[in-house]
Amino acid sequence: MVKRLLNGLLLLCVLAGGALLFPDARQALAPWLPAFLVPTPEAQPKAAGAKARPVPVRVAQAILRAVPIHLEGVGTVKARSTVSVKSQIEGQLIEALVREGQTVHRGDVLFRLDARPLQARLKEAEAALARDKVNHDKAVADFKRLKILSAKGFSPQTRLDDAATLVDTTRASVRASEAAVELANLNLAYATIRSPIDGRVGNLPVSVGNIVKANETPLLVITETKPVYVSFSLPERHLDELRRRMAGETLSVDLSTQASDGVVATGKLFFINNQVDASTGTIELLASFENADERLVPGQFARARVLLRTLDEAVLVPSRSIQINQTGLFVWVVGDDKTAVLRAVTTGPEVEDLTVLTSGVEAGETVVTDGQLRLFKGAKVAPKGDGKSGPTVAQETRS
Fold first, then answer.
1. Its pTM surpasses 0.70
2. SS3 for 287?
């Protein structure tokens, strides 16, 4: 009796397990199954209804607008010119008329050296010039007298030749003295040191009272900050198009820095280097910026963006709507009947979080941006929003 009872329980467990593993067998085994395992007539319709439930997705509308195409590169700000101001003569620094960080202009007096030794040398050179002029005048007068006497036979020809030589010698002495006077005047002018360019002054390493030597330690460094240049690099594959555009027009360059959130200056591209960097595959470019507010500082890192061209009528969709499979790129397009259709697309440049589509989607069509993994051909979708309202598109494009 006990064995029969155990066998019956074992058989019941087998039937129950089979009913759970194979739902289709429940109906055939219904007479021998407990009530809680017997399928109800409403169960199958509910399951069928669950399979046809629409897939929830997020959608956005493909929009049509003008898209500027930019090339971006990282570079540095460079001064158009930097001058190390040195003394051209030796002397004592007696006056400094400039402060650190001051803006100076071309011709402004920066320093003065002790000019008294130079003035004395100038007077000495002027005196030597006056002496040589007198000697030259006497030599010319003697030559004229000897020429007359020699013509009458009262003076030998050798004395006339010596007089002519003395005239040439004294003339050369006069020229040398004139050069000495000019040099003395030049050195005297060097005692006053002026700014050669417009710019901003750096540190002053030499103070008043020191003896400065010719062409040794710089007295200061002047950096031209208005305008400035920005050097940056772009991939060499854009070289031909950049040259074509520069030949016909001036390309604008927008600049941003680490200290700014947006564009801080707009300049003009004026130079493309004549050699490609073989190690990086890039070409160096230079852009000029007025920098009237001196916001750009030489040596500063910056990001330059060149406006290459503008696509007048471009179809854009959110970049996250673009998927990839074995055949290439595609998007899911939602029709008016809320049915998802797979559409192969060709992409263009990216603009922020949007991508230009050159084929596959027309402006105004609705594409799926989230929930693509659950979609299949002909699937019904339940978009969040209708995908056509203005606020939804604005939110997706961040325009």
1. no
2. strand
